[in-house]
Design brief:
Length: about 300
């Protein structure tokens, strides 16, 4: 049976957030759980665009654990420095969500809160308690971040058993193949991104995936070309700017690399890459000062 939310989900997964919102707003499904899932996808698309206040303004007054979880996700994305206070509320929301209309949605949103906080163990604990395809995908993503490609491969097999042709399964497969980093795996990942771009449209997410494949194959010029196309689609997309900075370093364009990172720092100061970069820069300055003082 076809999924009535197929276009909404696909638009969200490939990063076409405007289309996701548009598709969600015109659907009238007449099914309480599907309508709820559709609303949550729409608000997640708004969050992905950085429209945190819009989401908080609309959902804080709505009842149900699904919206409580969505509020927590919006808050931690907006203000990650307050993660401890936000994470402390997740347990209660999960308990309420166990008997909710859409328990897997509650689990997915709460797992995303944990992932935003960098709590991988809790992320996996929550995703393992759910059965949705996207929860499996989040587990794959988390395991890749933990450098546990071996376990991520087992999780990927579970996704393929459920629906290997689903867009979220294909994207997870591509991410896993990139993490493997050998030539055949990277080539497979490239074809996945190309197929999705041909089938739907080349979004910034899909183009960045292709660019990473080119870079892993030692083709920084091709990577730069693809990233410029991504930049044309979204001039403020942080991953595009970060990848352009990395590619610029490979090409010896140090001034361009600094310029791209400065743009990310200005527009997305709480981005995980920027947070880690600033930590490394601070550590470098401290070590440099220590070496100079010991001379």
């Amino acid at each position: 049976m076809s999924d009535p939310l197929f276009m909404v989900k696909t638009a969200f997964y490939i990063g076409n957030y405007r289309q996701c919102v548009k598709e969600a707003q015109k659907l009238q499904l007449g099914d309480q759980s599907l309508d709820l899932e559709c609303d949550i996808l729409m608000y997640r698309a708004y969050l992905a665009e950085g429209k945190y206040n819009l989401v908080l303004g609309e959902v804080q007054s709505r009842s149900g654990p699904e919206f409580l979880a969505l509020v927590l996700l919006a808050k931690i994305m907006q203000n990650p420095s307050n993660k401890d206070a936000i994470v402390s509320e997740v347990g209660n929301v999960l308990n309420e969500g166990a008997a909710s209309l859409c328990p897997d949605i509650v689990a997915l949103l709460c797992a995303n809160v944990y992932l935003q906080a960098g709590d991988y163990e809790s992320t996996l604990r929550v995703t393992n308690s759910a059965s949705s395809l996207e929860c499996h995908a989040l587990a794959v993503q988390t395991l890749i971040q933990m450098n546990r490609v071996d376990i991520a491969t087992k999780e990927m097999k579970k996704m393929q058993e459920i629906d290997e042709d689903a867009t979220v399964s294909q994207l997870s497969l591509a991410a896993l193949n990139i993490a493997m980093a050998d030539f055949k795996s990277v080539q497979t990942a490239y074809y996945v991104y190309q197929e999705l771009a041909d089938k739907f449209e080349p979004t910034a997410i899909l183009l960045n995936g292709q660019a990473v494949c080119f870079l892993l194959q030692g083709k920084p010029e091709q990577a730069e070309d693809v990233l410029q196309k991504a930049l044309d689609k979204d001039s403020g997309h942080p991953e595009t700017l970060i990848n352009l900075s990395i590619v610029s370093q490979f090409l010896g364009a140090k001034d361009s690399a600094k310029r791209y990172i400065s743009q990310v720092k200005d527009s997305h100061p709480n981005h995980p890459y920027i947070t880690r970069l600033e930590e490394k820069e601070k550590l470098f300055d401290e070590l440099s000062s220590a070496l100079i003082s010991n001379r």
